[in-house]
Amino acid sequence: MINFLEVILVLILLTVLLSLGSTRLVALVRIMALQGVLVSLTPLLLKGHGLASLGAVAFYVAMLAIKGVLIPAMLIRAVKSVSIQREIEPFVGYHASILMGLIFLLSAVFMTNSLHLSLPEGRALILICAVTTMATGLFLMLARKKAITQVIGYLMLENGIYLIGNALSQHHSLYIVEFGVLLDLLVAVMVMGIILTNINHAFDDVDTTLLGQLKD
Amino acid sequence: METLLLSLAVVLAAGILPLLANRLFTPIKACYVVLTLLGCGWGIYSLWPLMQLSVPATYTVAWLHPFELRFSLDALSSFFLIPILCVCPLAVLYVFHYMDHKEERQRIGVHLFLFNVLVAAMAMVVLAGNMISFVLAWEMMSISSFFLVLHEYEEKATRKAGYIYLLFTQLGALCIFSGMGVGFAFTQVLDFSALAKLPETAKLWMFCLMLFGFGSKAGIFPIHIWLPYAHPAAPSNTSAVMSGVMIKMGIYGIARFYGLLEISSPLAGQIVLVFGMISGVLGVVYALGKQDIKKLLAYSSVENIGIILIGFGVGMIGAAEGNLPMAIFGFTGGLLHVLNHSIFKSLLFLGAGAVAKQAGTRKIDLLGGLMKRMPLTGKSFLTGSVAISGLPPFNGFVSEFLIYVGAFYGLQLGGVQYVFAMLAILAMALIGGLAAACFTRIVGIVFLGEPRTERTAATQESGWTMTLPLMLLACCCLVIGLWPEPFVQAAFRAYGVMQANLQLDPAQLLEITGKMALGARIFFVLFLAALVSRKLLYRDKVVDSGPTWGCGFTQGTVRIQYTGTSYALSMVEFFRPVVRLSAHYTGISKIFPANPSYETHVDDVAEQALNSGLVTPVQFVLSKLRWIQHGHIQLYIGYIIIAILIALLCI
């Protein structure tokens, strides 16, 4: 019998590694859309979670719509409007980034084991996956120059946080918190979108290193 | 109690009106003024029955579960509510003609809204019955007044003034909150009533923190620096309310926490008295040296806060030493001076605002001869000046006299307290004399003589909504001076709240007040009689008038008049060690000198000390750390990661 949860977690890890190695921005956004969908499917496959109430159904649908459709659509629009195709000259190269991703994965395994949390069966894997996703998100923000990649790193960070919430929460009464985070994210992406066009307008590029010129 | 809070809601609602609908400028402004007046009037009306109650009225809002908001009203609160609900509506009425630039209507709308927020917040500070509601109201008051100061935010000087004010007010709030923290650490409840059970040293620590915190709001000497910046920068209605009413919230805090803590050591009184004397004397000396009319009034506020604190200090020493008459006279005088100062200082600020608006300048050496051009403003300004100098038959005399009586009772005490009482009397005498000099200077230079510039000569009287509040306030000065008994009694009742465990007898207080009032009335009747007889005697005679300072010559120019600087210079020079006086004089070398110039500046010694002792070193250290702010987002994220890792590893 196939364990769907493990399949999904493996897929998430693959998207994480793929995002570290992809140069094209549109592809990166698509990967993020896939990751968003996978992440929002995870709680359905957990034991003790499930489609308990109408509120929960609405929540999962909204989650799926925002993470899988709305945010990627906005990002793609932003990419189109500033007309850049690929991330060139990153601070850390693509192959080195993938290597870093693998190091993150290993250290996440090590960290989760050394924490000795008494988690229900299957949750430890989610925790590993979540920590890797978070670390990769932070790393993407650190290692890339374009503002869009920064946003994507931030999204990935949030996906990681959501997964951690899933791994640690025993009940599904925490929708409020998760929904709050989601709204936060949506606003952040919108604001970043506006800033992005402004940066592009001012510097003819979305390279964040140029922002250093704004310092007084 | 509910009606009182409802009236505050009316005031707030009146403020929202110009914020939303400033398109119809004049009608909405009229609506705003009328509604605010109604709200404040209703507040006073609902205050009346509450003042008759012997137990404090309370109102509790419980929906913030652990943080219950409680408002309570006792005699001390209602005494401080009087200036809030009486002076603020007059300043609101004044706004109608004062802010008449239609093109700035959005900004004015925001200003009026924040003004009413400030009024409501001040009322809530006074009503607050536990720490949470006090802190909430206090912050509302500070923030709204900060934005009021920033009204003309395009000017760099205004922004600087605003930030200096914000710095000091938040520093003060920090001290107040940490003082409350000391109290909470011992009592574990947010309620005020438990504070009396603190150990004696904790009480003293808490009181000193509170004194510093409230002192920065009130403008006690070394931490008064924001006053001479913020008051000139703010519009006059705001500076009138800030100087007349808002800084009294600092005094209210000191009085309230002194009462709650029930301090028995005389040290608190001595500290307050010393700070009062320093603020009083130096405030008036700096006021003498200033050129800007509103800066001068700001320093004069420092002086009056000093007088109030001298009263409180005398009262605290009296209470600690068991000399009850000293305590009663000191505190009642101090509290009455709070009310009096709120009346005449707002009168003077509103008058100064009218002068500045009509004549286009605040520099007193450019004004002159305005008594003939703005008779109503001039006469009410003169009344306020006489009252603030503490001369009979006006209200300033009553409160200062009560403080004197308290200090004289202090001479019965032996040892150190005798010296303190003596010093208090000397300081009061010095302050009185210098204040009279300061205000003869301002009235003499601004309103008497001949106009010094053509712009000043073309000045006209301002609109009726600007002169009416001035006249009303001037009448209040006179009424309290002639019939002080009810006001003294209200102040005495407020003092009774502060010292709940002592049996106080007001008989002696009322007797002395009655005699003083009788004297003031006789003086006033004599003055009126002299005025009437002069009118009668000069009825049929021809009175010829020439230019002021003409002295029979017809060729004199306006420049031979006394200037404000020359009038005050000898007095300011006397205080050289504490007043930095810098003069720039080019000198005269030829028989027909081309452009000789003479300029003096009076610099605040506290500000200079703060600049050289704290600001410059801190700036030096921080400039060495500028490299942290490099502007690279990636490295900023790196900082975050390092911080998270350190936190994870260490904690």
Describe, in plain words, how this protein is organized in 3D.
- The complex is a heterodimer of chains A (216) and B (651).
- Chain A is an all-alpha fold.
- Chain A has one domain.
- Chain A has seven helices and no strands.
- Chain A has helices spanning 4-21, 25-45, 54-82, 94-115, 123-143, 147-168, 175-203.
- In chain B, strand 1 (57-61) and strand 2 (69-73) form a beta hairpin.
- Chain B folds into three domains: 1-186 and 223-251; 264-500 and 560-587 and 595-603, no CATH class; 613-650.
- With 651 residues, chain B is mainly α.
- A two-stranded antiparallel ribbon of chain B has the order 1-2. In chain B, strands 3-4 form a two-stranded antiparallel sheet.
- Chain B has helices spanning 2-20, 25-52, 75-98, 105-127, 131-149, 156-187, 200-218, 227-233, 236-261, 266-289, 293-321, 324-359, 370-373, 375-388, 395-410, 415-447, 454-457, 464-482, 485-498, 507-537, 564-574, 605-624, 633-650, and strands spanning 57-61, 69-73, 580-585, 598-603.
- The radius of gyration of chain B is 26 Å and the shape is globular.
- The chains are: A mainly alpha (216), B mainly alpha (651).
